[in-house]
Design goal:
There is one protein chain. This protein is an alpha/beta fold. Helices cover 28% and strands 19% of the residues. It contains 13 helices and 23 strands. The strands form six sheets. A seven-stranded parallel beta sheet has the order 19-20-18-17-21-22-23, with helices on both faces. A four-stranded antiparallel beta sheet has the order 1-2-5-8, with no helix packed on it. Strands 13-12-14-15 form a four-stranded parallel beta sheet, with helices on both faces. A hairpin with a 5-residue loop joins strand 10 and strand 11. Helix 2 crosses helix 10. The radius of gyration is 24 Å and the shape is globular. 50% of the residues are buried.
Length: 496
Amino acid sequence: MKSFIKIHKNDNVAISIRNLTKGEIIENEDLSLTLMEDIPKGHKFSLHEINANENIVKYGSPIGHATEKVKKGFWVHSHNMKTNLSGVEEYEYKQKQQPLSYKQEGLTFKGYRRENGQVGIRNELWIVPTVGCVNGIADQIIQEFKYQVGNSMPFDSIQVLKHNYGCSQLGDDHVNTRTILGNAVKHPNAGGILVLGLGCENNDIDEFKDSLGVINENRIKFLRSQEVVNEIDEGVKLLLSIYESAKKDKREDIPISELKVGLKCGGSDGFSGITANPLLGKLSDYLIAQNATTVLTEVPEMFGAEKLLMERAVNEEVYRKIVSLINDFKHYFQSYNQPVYENPSPGNKAGGITTLEDKSLGCTQKAGSAPVVDVLKYGERIKSRGLNLLSAPGNDLVASTALAASGCQMVLFTTGRGTPFGSFVPTMKISTNTEIYETKPHWIDFNAGTIIVDQEPETLLKGFLDYIIKVASGELVNNEKNNFREMAIFKTGVTL
């Protein structure tokens, strides 16, 4: 097994694959050096002397600069380097495109073709509260409904999409809540929806219904709790009505071109940009070659790598949307007097990620090399096949909810430190290292850490693609098995 990885020929640091000790001699065909300090696994060390203020280069790009002279063989981390980021930048349109290396193969999965042509990978029954006050009522309705139908359940799962909002909100926060909930109601993974209101909330149920546009009223029902004597009985009646419409639903062969997949990472480590994120990048390129769709979000974790995405804009209009995506989020940070570079997290740093550029250049590996075809505002739904960028923060729950609300049928989530959560669509965890996969098999669904021990990435991609198709065809991932499902809506303003 190798002891370290040099990612790009122009890098002046390498990454340790295991805990390395002071005095150890590191060799490959290109270099030989003696380590002058212990190097934790996943962390960086200098390949030659780096002067103060000289750029630290990883992935072939600067990830910050040295704050002091760093001699050959020394640990490079927060104590001797710093970000180059400062604030809003000026950009110039310089398109750089490269052809995809994959061909169409005609693969299919077993999914649900909805009446409006959309495709779901699950057939679930959801209660969507218009306001957080009725979350408990929704639980009681489901409990009674399950008792009445017994084992004759046509649904893969029955869930309440719980949240804390829908009332005492103004402006953009109110709009965000209504938009995300509306997108959930229209999501093709749901075979039926009960929209459950209280009756006095500002997310008024009649206005909410009007905002949905054309719907299938056999599959989507509405209940205002304050207007009925027994809201549990009334809710169960509506679910039974949906049940009658859905009980004959069956999976059928669907072209893989119908997949819409969200790309996300969290609890990253020094291997994220080497193993799991590049694996998602390969998968994204493969799916796009099949005319499918992928969506990358976490805008603050594009800072420092945004120019690479801008170069891939399919045209100048999309380029300008990417510029706005980046600068609007930077202005959001500055409006609260917060620095745009206050990232990575303590866990990221413990895993070997030092600066936001370090994190961003690893994060954007998930987007592969395909052209960027569109940029979605927060709450917008997918309109174009191919690689899309979506405006949302780095927060795992908020970003994953935004991906699901955009129309993604599943979210692929890479992690080096592990996390158990899930959004309201299947949220597959892909580990960056084998240790976390073996330690947390009840959290992690797929191991990308085998790339470190010389497994060919294309071989791993084939196994990963096979697994994606199984999940799209109904195989449960761990967050579904554990019933860990969360909804988190972006909030920025006043609560009344």
